[in-house]
């Protein structure tokens, strides 16, 4: 990009950046250009079009150029801006956390479905539950637990992750969305740091489930920038899902639900793992927008 052009306006710069990304096979070229320019100018994406003829200063051009170069090398847009939308809420993200994805909203939807939906959730489960404790395992940025804490306020929430850096981000996101007093965060490996006791009415987990073969085929901007430990689930992708399926019955009270996000082709195997425990009276799946069984739901026998 030449900074010697007489005048770079918002619209001309958007057009140039989109073409630049298209020529270099950068994913979502138009969206990337819009989000990065809006971030550089501290505007919304809508403002870009409302101010399409606004000229940019040399400082603004330099700021945008730096972002363009980093995106060209593969750095994800969410890490460049430090933000990602999930469930219509804005979440902070860093390279210590996985970037929240649309398919994970299916996990939230599945939980709300079995809980009765929205603020009616716990009251729907109340007849079969002795307590109102819920836990999110593998909390990452905190997107899932924050949304569920908002949608199901009658539950007392815990968030567990093995990464201290991820937990710092999750705590900040809980604070930003007014949920800091509603969620207690702990470092731990799955449920091993919690004394076995059927105290939870809801256990939710979005654990690493990418197999090694899938990992090697992931796009560069995922494989080289997002935390490997938050994605790679071993040879078959089930290294963490397998032990959690075995642990959960010791912690889940009768009538409570276990909700797991899984990878493409994994739902059947995960349901078999749950069946082997002989502790669930209901097993079901929820498909994502591509028709892939993305979430496995299991209700503990009362």
Précis, in short:
With 302 residues, the chain is an alpha/beta fold.
If you had to describe this structure to a student in words, what would you say it looks like?
With 302 residues, this protein is an alpha/beta fold. It folds into 2 domains: 10-73, Ubiquitin-associated (UBA) domain (Helicase, Ruva Protein, domain 3), CATH 1.10.8.10; 84-300, Vaccinia Virus protein VP39 (Rossmann fold, 3-Layer(aba) Sandwich). It is 39% helix and 19% strand. It is built from 13 helices and 9 strands. The chain has helices at residues 10-23, 29-41, 45-50, 58-72, 77-81, 104-115, 121-125, 143-151, 164-176, 212-216, 220-223, 241-247, 267-276; strands spanning 83-86, 89-92, 133-137, 156-161, 183-187, 200-205, 252-261, 280-287, 293-300. The strands form 2 sheets. Strands 5-4-3-6-7-9-8 form a 7-stranded mixed sheet, with helices on both faces. A two-stranded antiparallel sheet has the order 1-2. Strand 1 and strand 2 (89-92) form a beta hairpin. Helix 1 packs across helix 2 and helix 6 (104-115) packs parallel to helix 8.
């Amino acid at each position: 990009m030449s900074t010697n052009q007489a005048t770079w306006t918002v619209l001309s710069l958007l057009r140039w950046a989109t073409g630049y990304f298209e020529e270099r096979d950068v994913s979502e070229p138009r969206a990337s250009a819009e989000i990065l320019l809006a971030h550089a100018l501290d505007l919304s994406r809508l403002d870009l079009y409302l101010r399409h003829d606004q000229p940019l200063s040399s400082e603004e051009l330099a700021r945008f150029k730096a972002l363009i170069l980093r995106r060209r090398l593969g750095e994800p847009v969410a890490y460049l801006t430090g933000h990602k939308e999930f469930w219509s809420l804005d979440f902070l993200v860093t390279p210590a956390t996985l970037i929240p994805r649309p398919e994970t909203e299916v996990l939230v939807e599945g939980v709300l479905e079995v809980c009765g939906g929205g603020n009616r959730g716990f009251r729907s489960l109340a007849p079969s539950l002795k307590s109102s404790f819920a836990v999110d395992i593998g909390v990452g940025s905190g997107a899932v637990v924050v949304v569920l804490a908002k949608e199901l306020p009658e539950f007392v929430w815990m968030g567990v992750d093995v990464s201290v850096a991820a937990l710092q981000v999750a705590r900040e996101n809980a604070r930003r969305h007014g949920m800091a007093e509603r969620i207690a965060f702990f470092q731990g490996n799955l449920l091993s740091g919690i004394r076995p006791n059927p105290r939870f009415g809801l256990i939710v987990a979005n654990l690493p489930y990418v197999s090694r073969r899938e990992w090697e085929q992931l796009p560069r901007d995922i494989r080289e920038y997002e935390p490997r430990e938050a994605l790679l689930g071993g040879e078959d992708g089930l290294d963490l899902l397998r032990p959690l399926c075995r642990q959960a019955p010791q912690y889940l009270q009768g009538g409570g639900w276990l909700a797991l996000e899984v990878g493409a082709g994994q739902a059947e195997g995960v349901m078999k793992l749950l069946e082997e425990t002989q502790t669930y009276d209901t097993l079901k799946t929820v498909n994502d927008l591509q028709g892939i069984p993305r979430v496995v739901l299991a209700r503990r026998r009362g």
